[in-house]
Amino acid sequence: MSKDAAAKPDKPAPEDRRIGVFICHCGGNISDYVDVNAVREALADEPGVVVSETTVFACSDGTQHDMIDAIRAEKLDGLVVASCSPKLHQVTFRNVASRADLNPYTYTQVNVREQASWAHPHDKAGATEKVIGLVRAGVAKSRLSDPLQALRVQTLPRTLVIGGGIAGLRAAIGLAEIGIEAILVERSDHLGGWVGGFGAMFPNDDSGRDQVASLVEQITQRRDITVYTNAEVTGKAGSFGNYEMEVTLHREGSDKTLQVDVGAIIVATGFDSYDPASGEYGYGMDGVVTLPQFKELVDSSAAGELSYQGRPVRSLAYIYCVGSRQRGGNEHCSKYCCTSAIHTSLLVNNLDPAIRQFHVYRDVRAYGKYELLYNESREGGSTYLKFDADTPPEVAKLDSGALGVTVTDLLTQSQEVTLPVDLVVLVTGMVPRENTSLVELLKVPVGTDGFFNEIHPKLRPVETVVDGLLIAGCCQSPRTVGESVSAGLAAVAQSAALLKKGYADLDPLVARIDPDKCISSGECLTVCPYGSITSIEWDGRMAASIDPATCKGCGGCVPVCGSDAIELLGYTDEQMLAAIEEMVITEVPDKEPVA
Questions:
Q1: Residue from 476, 465, 467 nearest 435 by CA
Q2: Which residues lie below 8 Å from residue 505, measured CB to CB, with a gap of 6+?
Q3: DSSP string computed for 123-138
């Protein structure tokens, strides 16, 4: 760290700022519950505000051009947009500022939709008052904003892909096809994951084994893809664009460690199938199997020869939602299981159409074109019985020696039915794979359901809060093969966007330490979840230092610093105190001031 690096950038005095405020109607989402004209009038006389306007859709192309024209005509040096969540359009309005030659970090987004109009739909006056306070706070923050510059880092055109399942394989090939070298690391001794062990799969009866074999063949023919099996990632150093990854190879009783330098990382570690507890829907009893076990049985059977442990199977029952949609357990829907069970029943029909098949379900979620498989299954003779979540089916041995599935069928006026069958198939869902060491190493964000979290499921579906760390496939959520491959290719596209130019610009809204104030207490060193803070020598003494390339601007280090030596750029103490003071008292015409 140098003293120049620690110095604050120049900025206009607050009283000399020229700020434009744009209040969005959001097509009625805001204007139906907030008097936007009252907000505009209240902000028009705010110190430093030279433009105060309302607009139907601030994010529309036409309004963006109007903003650019206003910025140039009025020589604005600050921009405040009062609209929706920054997660949706922060990038949009930063780009508007940049296109108008305004520093994008002098722009402030004020979320008045989620925080006011949607929060107070039955109190228009109160919501309006709140919005005025929020926008005034945004203006106060912008008056003290710094003209920050993006952090530019050089990037290495090589990506590490962790996981050799269908998503990881397709991602590695996609990277190579666009000129980015791929390093593929797989924990097991073979590639392909779950798909590599399956025969015919929905919706087109394509063989999973054949698909994986084709991808592996393509990989072996490419010199720009390196594959390590029986390997795992055990170390990480460096920062985005130049990660130094440690890969440990497990080889016949001994381990070998090597270092690979990469610019980005794609995590595609897949999923585990739910393992029922002993006794759960009869699991552990002879003749009760999970769907993956039954799929393997069907794939290995010849026409007319479906048997289990040497006994012919003439009837079977599928019990849906085992390990999914559980109260107090795996509450997520695994999404693929209904269609997979239906497709497997069609394969059974192909083996022997005389086998009786019963589907005992809570809800059938064969979405999109998969509903055609559901119709085909019903027309092929499968019987569907619906149970209530409060009265799940029970599995027991009958006096005849067969298995009995007892269910209260909602489709027959809640009659209790006992189905004597030769085999019970528990339609088990996906659960997160255990990856504790990898999560801790890479700082992968994990959701409450245990799957990895992207920044936004629609706008940034494979990116994480860690720059250069992408996720793809079923490590994110339960999904089909097609959806997993699409996610893998999305990660390829994002990796290319980060690495192909040879450099990337990072958000400068990071923490900054004033070394002259730092007393080297060490409190900040332990609180940073990203390991961005280290201790260095400064003017003959030790002081903390923050690596801006790895800092994520979470602000966790700011409150623990007893000497007030750390501030978060874009959210400095001065800015936030000014914003708070603006919200302490707001006034709305015809109402008393509210403290």
A1: 476
A2: 150, 151, 152
A3: -HHHHHHHHHHHHHHH
- 475 contacts 163 by C-beta, under 8 angstroms: yes
Tell whether the model's pLDDT for residue 342 goes beyond 70.
yes
Which tokens is 83 given? 């609209």
CA distance 330 to 448: 10
Q: Tell me: the pLDDT tens digits for 8-55?
A: 455 667 778 999 999 999 999 999 999 999 999 999 999 999 999 999
Q: How many angstroms separate the most distant Cα atoms in the chain?
A: 91
Tell me: pLDDT of 85 over 80.
yes
Domain spanning 273-430: CATH superfamily: FAD/NAD(P)-binding domain (3.50.50.60)
Fold that domain 158-270+433-503 belongs to in CATH: FAD/NAD(P)-binding domain (3.50.50)
Determine contact, residues 442/267, Cβ cutoff 8 Å: yes
What is the DSSP-derived secondary structure letter of residue 413?
Answer: T
Strands 423-428 and 315-322: parallel
pLDDT in tens, 413-438: 999 999 999 999 999 999 999 999 99
**pTM reported for the whole predicted model:** 0.83
pLDDT value of position 576? 93
Alpha helices in 144-255 (DSSP H): 166-177, 208-220
Chain segment 210-242, per-residue pLDDT in tens: 999 999 999 999 999 999 999 999 999 988 999
Alpha carbons 197 and 210: distance in angstroms, whole number: 10
The verdict on whether omega for the bond into residue 12 sits within 30 degrees of 0, i.e. cis, is: no
The pair of structure tokens assigned to 493 is: 């596209």
The residue extents of the domains of the chain are 13-150, 158-270+433-503, 273-430
- In this structure, the strands spanning 19-24 and 49-55 are parallel
Cα distance from N-terminal residue to C-terminal residue, the chain: 44
Kindly report the CATH number that applies to the domain delimited by 13-150. Answer: 3.40.50
